[in-house]
Amino acid sequence: METSAQRTGEQPVATRLLLACGAIGALLNIVVILILGAIRPGYNALLIPDSSLELGEGGWIQMTNYIVTGVLLLAFAIGLRLRLCTGRGSTWGPILLGLFGLSFIGTGIFVTDPVLGYPPGVPSMTTIPGTIHNLLGQLQFNSLAVACFVLARRDAADPASRRWAWYSVATGLLVVASSIVFVLTFILLDGGPVGLIERIGIIVSGCWVALLAIRLMSKQASIA
């Protein structure tokens, strides 16, 4: 028997809550790294990657931020799968965003290595946990970028969603570009404005996830 929610196109409360986790998690991460980067003594947010906030006094806050953000994004991936029941991207979109969430949890568990003079007085070094952290960081950007392209392909099939499809493609390209420029700048310039470059990618990707979550929470069935 059809329920009143189905007749009006409303989504189950559980699905809406899971989708809301995407907006909360993505925006939480942006807010935390911006605040910590601004108040941490001896830390320059323009020059130092956000992962370095895991190091030094108060590093547990950034580790916790990564893990909480990752759990919320995993919940969002589940909600996305429930929302996109069929059609293009209904399987790989949630999988890729699930990997995106898992990468946050991993970077919170495997702490980064000291780099670029931070923490002050600690020499740069390479450790196994730090190497795993870096690999998870690449997975984070890559999985998000591919998810943008996969979901853009889904939206491109709907004339009413073409603008969103182009926004998704633009986001994916910007995330890929920021990741490449970050690595090249880090290697070729021995640092440079890597903190700024990385934060551009983080903010662009986080805003896309948050807006996607809000969009999917809409009652309209046209994007289901």
TrEMBL record:
The keyword Oxidoreductase does not apply. It holds the Pfam family DUF998. Keywords: Membrane, Transmembrane, Transmembrane helix. The keyword Transcription does not apply. The chain crosses the membrane at residues 17-39, 59-80, 92-112, 132-152, 164-188, 200-218. This is DUF998 domain-containing protein. It comes from Tengunoibacter tsumagoiensis.
